[in-house]
Design goal:
Distance between the termini: 22 Å
InterPro entries: Papain-like_cys_pep_sf, Transglutaminase-like, Ubiquitin-like_domsf
GO molecular function, one term: metal ion binding
Shape: globular
Pfam families: Transglut_core
Keywords: Metal-binding, Zinc
Family: Belongs to the transglutaminase-like superfamily. PNGase family.
Largest sheet: 6 strands, antiparallel
Length: 723
Amino acid sequence: MVARQFVVRHNGDEFPIDYDTDHGLEILKLQIFSLTSVEPDDQQILVEDERLLVDEGTDLNALSDKLKLVSITEAKDISKPSTSQEMSDEELARLLQAEEEALLLQQFSAVDNGEQFRSRVEPYVKQVLMYESPVRQEAARKTVPVDELEEKALISLAKEGNFNPSKDERDHSFLLQLLFWFKQSFRWVNAPPCDKCGHETSNIGMGAPLPSEIEYGGSRVEIYRCNSCSSITRFPRYNDPLKLVETRRGRCGEWANCFTLYCRAFGYDARLILDFTDHVWTECYSQVHGRWMHLDPCEGTYDNPLLYEKGWGKKLNYAIGISKDGVQDVTRRYTRKWHEVLSRRIIATESAVSSVLSSITRQCRSNYSAEALSILTDRDQRELEELEKASYLKPDTELSLPGRQSGSVEWRKSRSELGLAETEALGLSSCPVRKCVDAHVSAIYDSFSLLLSQLSDEHVSGDRLSDVMEVFKNFLLDIKSQPFKKRESSLDLKSFEISEKMKECIERLLDALSLKSQWSDDRVVRVTITGNPVNTSLALPVALDLVDEVINSCKNKVYLKDGLTFPRPNRLCSGMVIASGEQLPVGIATSAFEGTRANKWEEPNGAKGCWLIYKVPNAQKCDLESYDLMSANDVPERDPMDWVLEASSDGGSSWTVIDRQGSQLFESRFLRKSFKIGTRFVADTFRFRVLSVRDPNSQPRFQIGSIDLYAAPNSSPSEKINL
């Protein structure tokens, strides 16, 4: 194995690639494709310094690390310059000139010497100091299902192939799960429900605060009248996060205020971001990324700082980060139109703004040790360099950012925050190569298939089979409800005759779930976890959904066509996947291979055509015999209706259609359809190409709940499960 680091230039952009030369040229082309969207069979790779063409006979170990990519059509004229996506010298000069003009205008239009700006920022310094209160932090921690979020954080890392994360990686993943939990547990208030009857209310103005409301910073009180019973409901806008931990409701101010407390309660360096155009969110310092990271609890999104400018269409002016350690102007992080933002910064001159922020920060740090000051100063300097660089970057044109999702449509429309495009979620028109972490799914399918086959051999009736599955389901639910690091339960099989072969099948199933068994004479099996508990956390949802599906099939006497059964053995696993697009963060391409109903692959722009490529692991080839598709949880209009399945024996350079389907309808949610391959073909790569969804004119999206590929017997590539 020879590890190389290439830099591939394409259309003015540079793409660093870590690559193992033993994988061959086809894998390199797939990696390049995932970054550039130039399909492998349309790629020509050149050694940039020598202008040599890279082909199958090229020694990849001896190449220069500087490569250039052109499409075949571009390659007809190598000397023709490509369209640069970088900021050219001319563009940079124009931008700097625009900045100078904006700064000059600011000298004449600035309101004062910075006192008005100071008055906007300083009250929030007192606000963020509330987050340091041990009483408030403890109150916040008590409301969080820590064990559940820790498990989800470790599962998230495991799905990326990281089963032994560092502390920084665990902390980072837990923070994201805390964000998602907060999004689900906090309630947005357009108009509060009636306190008396629960019906809708309408605003009738403001009211005088009560002493009990003022105690928690509720100096502003909105008054609402019930549309049904005419009762009055008060909605105090509390500023004290201690009260917000109790009420768990509000608008963006309350959401960001309370979530920032939660971040501090779990030890994260966090700051409140005050947007002068009337929004508030949070930033946390990520040790994994070595920088501050944007988090918006209202939207449930993270690390998408261009959301407001590009997605919502906001005209930003000032975004100020406020924490116990001081205040920072972080506006540049949230814009790629700094010269335009400068023209709107007219409260004070840039020098006055800088002076005010420096003064407040010095005061905040006045009692810090020399060591602490040194650490913070170094971090401030690195952030300043990052923000300076961000000012001159172009936005990623492939990134689709949504308009605002929180709040009523009328309210968002009144604030002009519906966005520049009618999108519902973050998406990418291309996505990186991802590895399917699904060896456990295939192991569970194999073991359940063996168990069901044994039950059939022992002439167990359909009703009795359903009874057996119900026992397994109750067992799985019980062990899943236990703390994930200390799971244990009992599998009570006293009411069933258990042969030695059946016992072997059950033990194999438990092993697939990373569980160990201890049998008693009365056929009660004591079960505990073995090895890394995350393995069991990954496996249990797969097994539960599988058992549910088998039970429903037994009860409804629904069976797959063409003699195919579910589950069945020889499912492909651990392949590499790339797709035409995916929804972030939960609708990524590999979600379709995770074996659970909770996940799906969603392509934001796939209604009229999209694709997914699956590469068999370890350069192996197989003869695909069949495949299953399962509909997702909602929106039938997004189901696939017309598609082709293609195979390639040369890593994707050429394709052969091995199955074609048209006018397929998924009549219900989580409905599995199985298809036998019409044209058998030994291949190392497969492409699922969707031609149309059920209703491509009603919405732009495609989605699929799961994709399972099955090799013919004696053709399935072996994959050792080593989690």
